[in-house]
Amino acid sequence: MPRRDDIKKILLIGSGPIVIGQACEFDYSGTQACKALREEGYEVVLVNSNPATIMTDPSQADSTYIEPLTWEIVAKVIEKERPCALLPTLGGQTGLNVAMDLSSNGVLEKYGVEMIGAIADVIDKAEDRDRFKKAMEKIGLDVCTGETVNTIEEAREVLQKLGLPMVVRPSFTMGGSGSAIAYNREEFDALVRSGLDQSPVTEVLLEESIIGWKEYEMEVMRDMDDNVVIICAIENFDPMGVHTGDSITVAPAQTLTDKEYQRMRDASLAVIREIGVETGGSNIQFAINPTDGRMIVIEMNPRVSRSSALASKATGFPIAKIAAKLAVGYRLHELANDITRETLACFEPTIDYVVTKIPRFAFEKFPEADATLTTQMKSVGETMAIGRTFKESFQKALRGLEVGSFGFGCDGKDLWGTELQPSEDDIRAKLSTPNSERVWHLRYAMKQGFSNEEIYNITGIDYWFLDHLREIVETEDVLREKGDIDSVDYELLRTAKRFGFSDRQLATLLGKTEIDIRKWRLDQGIAATFKSVDTCAAEFEAYTPYYYSTYEDEDETPAKDPDQRRIMILGGGPNRIGQGIEFDYCCCHASFALRDMGIESIMVNSNPETVSTDYDTSDLLFFEPLTTEDVLNICDRVQPDGVIVQFGGQTPLNLARGLQNAGVPIIGTSVDTIEAAEDREKFQQLLERLELRQPANGIARNMDQARMEATKIGFPSLVRPSFVLGGRAMEICYDSAQFDRYVAEAFVVAQGQPVLIDRFLEDATEVDVDAICDGERVVVSGIMEHIEEAGVHSGDSACAIPPYSLPGPVVEAIREATVALAMDLKVVGLMNVQYAVKKEDGQMNVYVLEVNPRASRTVPFVAKATGLPVARIATQVMAGQTLDELGIEKAPIPSHVSVKESVFPFRKFVGVDIILGPEMRSTGEVMGVSERFSIAFAKSQLAAGVILPKEGNIFLSVTQRHKDTITDLAQRLHAMNFNLMATEGTARRIEETGIPVQRVKKIAEGHPNLIDHLIDGEVSLVLNTPNGKGARTDEGKIRAAAVHHGVSCITTIQAAEAAVKAMEALCEEEMAVQSLQERL
């Protein structure tokens, strides 16, 4: 069958901001779908709220709308664009939920829009727990015993039948949000209430507990002719009870017998047929009881899932691309495999290697949170590694995780043999409760003398995995016994490298430096070779393969063309708070720009969720950990003419000096310049030379030095460790007691690096500036005014382009300072500068806070707000072109206001105080655009899930210094007919202006207090600026309770002012939609 010609225009819905449970893998699938549909001649309309994505680039779709993902807003896009069809299966749970809302509210029917890929009834059949259960029973497949409930009373009836422990799972949430295991009645009641609250359809599934069973996922594709192929079988290393997104996973499945695999395969085909997903990818999860072999179907995602990105990268089979083409009428046997160009998409991929994915966590950002891993996902990113064996890929994945470990122990983070060596009781405790540290405690257990049987009985981790981990430990013991390189022969060294040992681990074991080990290894003739991922286990020639390293004899990388320039781009590794998709965006643009310039682009990255690790983003892709050793191994083979380290965030910057010392040619801004900007003393000299102000500051290497600096600098002061990401351990101190505590914590995080101390500029406005410099001239691409006051991390603050309140002369002074800094530092490429503007003695003073001569997380937002392709231009400049040659005079002045707002994971971490501070805690961002600041801000709030109410009760409680401002806001809220509630102090100040206010008790004053009103659904919005910080304070409890009960909570006076302005604007006008292409 040819593709459908009755469809001309197709609407794609993206997945919105990066949140835990739904990350940039859906940018990857959406970008693939856009490409696939446009190459077939369809007009593509894309709606997404996340500006950091590649898919929202104006070049990816014919019409791109960066708008909030609510059905009401998407309905406006449909009314305007009149698409023929909607493809709902590539935008994660968010995209699917919006599509279902559009269907149930009659929008699709009204405008004659057909749902393709999966129709509404099919989606409902897979997502509705009762319907899915009945469907499985009909085809003779076992499911968990359980029932869906809509009230707490119904839940208690089910409890009587099924007993405890019981799994509680809210319907239609993402990343297992709200799901957990109840072990007692009190927990059960709390989880059910919370689950009903979080489920958009007020429904919770209660199921028998199958903790400890083995868990598997099957990625399945089906076309209209009922051809079905299995793309990949993925096995969870951790047994049931840990969300699959938080488990280490391995592909292909390692521990299934042939018979078990065949049973699961047959079941997968039966499930996709019965549910009726006509075209595209689906993900089906199974559990197997290790004692009796009973197999049950856990659930099915009738869409491209989080695991689809992993399966695509693990096999080379582009699931999202094929799914999009199947949705428009193609059959599997009509689509060619891009990599082989001979086989067809109906050939199931064959792989002759092992893939390991390990999740990355951010519990250090939320010290009050429960770090136990459960059925609710908590990881913020992941890394993937490929090796010839499980041992090799496992150790490579551990070092790709970028948490300071270089494999399964024997490195700087290894506690074995130190004073901090864990005791037997510590090890047992870490093994028995799933947590982010458990993987290293498996090794400690083996070193302590635990047998595999004991470890299995505690963890439920399959014997097969434990046997392989023990082989790694045994090899380590042999190497440790040898003690020096002269005692290690060729065979032992080669075995160690084949088992995934890094040079850093060998250096630790053999008492040498990493560079010594590298030289010795190469002298022995043991060098990394590279194998291709080609979907067919080397049965056919591969045209667009990508590569992984191993230690065999034959190398498959193509020889370098002497007439062709090669430039390598180092990616950002696993996503984490402080380093996310924005840097992948920069890396992709670098690759696209190089290709257009006729330069061969080489991408190195270890993150399977990203567009940068798509097989056709670059000319060559190396799926490798970002360590000095692994990058040098690639350089040995491909001999790049230049390496870009400035686009992947802190990850490649940490490698820059080591690579340069090894002779790798780094292009763009020099490593010396990057390091000089981080060096306090050099930076101070630079600012003095340019006659620019900076807050009083000092540097300390111990507590005594820190106290001396504090006496000079005064309070409030800002304390932070140097060389860390996302403001890690950065705190504002108002007195000596706080200062001592926070400085001590900063020294721990700094790991031997000095701690920086600055005077904190209270009530200042922060400004972020992005610029491009070619060494001769500077173009300031974007000036962003922060909405929150200075002191909130720039990654967590809302900001606006163009600046909405700064006077013209101040903006001009900032522009001139940026140009002077870039020229003095000799920047070639991107630069980001952070300023603070503070009113002192009647005049506005501009202070320089920090300079980063590299890509920043604001680059994609600036590009979308101004229309200037910042990362692309910077790449061209780094590759040798000038701004004059590129015809770039200055950045365009945007005619609209764009507001970027941050999105936080607080729903995942119950009880955490949500107050914003200098340490970054957001996972993603959204963007609101309008001609007016107020409407742009309103859109950004809606996109971030902050509901600005139109009626109801608003609770106000502000710190002493905001009491004057709150009276003005109270008057404006009262004028909009809101009822006001406040605690004693704030209420008294509001009443003085003659506005009625309902007094509410503080928690310490007894009941009924605000938490009671929140529980009873009587509060629509909370405006609370803090006196104190922490989950244990009264205010912290109020803020945490607001999050728990789904009530928006605004914690800065500036955001409160912007919100009230937005609410006033929404009373006068509706939100309108406009595409990027129309605007720019």
What would you say about this model in short?
The chain has 36 helices and 38 strands.
Would you give an account of this structure?
The chain is α/β, with parallel strands linked by helices and 1080 residues long. α5 packs across α6 and α20 crosses α29. The strands form eight sheets. A seven-stranded antiparallel sheet has the order 14-13-10-11-12-15-16, sandwiched between helices. The chain contains 36 helices and 38 strands. β34, α31 and β35 form a beta-alpha-beta unit.
Mean pLDDT: 92
Number of strands: 38
The proportion of residues in beta strands is 15-25%
Q: Which parts are unreliable, with pLDDT below 50 for 5 consecutive residues or more?
A: none
The first-to-last residue Cα distance is 39 Å
What profile does the largest beta sheet have? 7 strands, antiparallel
Summing up helix and strand content along with how strands pair, one would put the structural category as alpha/beta
Number of helices, where a helix is a run of at least 4 consecutive DSSP H or I residues: 36
Q: What is the CA-atom radius of gyration, in angstroms?
A: 28 Å
Helical percentage = 25-40%
Which descriptor suits the 3D outline? globular
List the main descriptive attributes of the protein structure presented here.
single chain, 1080 residues, alpha/beta, 7-stranded antiparallel β-sheet, 38 strands, 37% helix
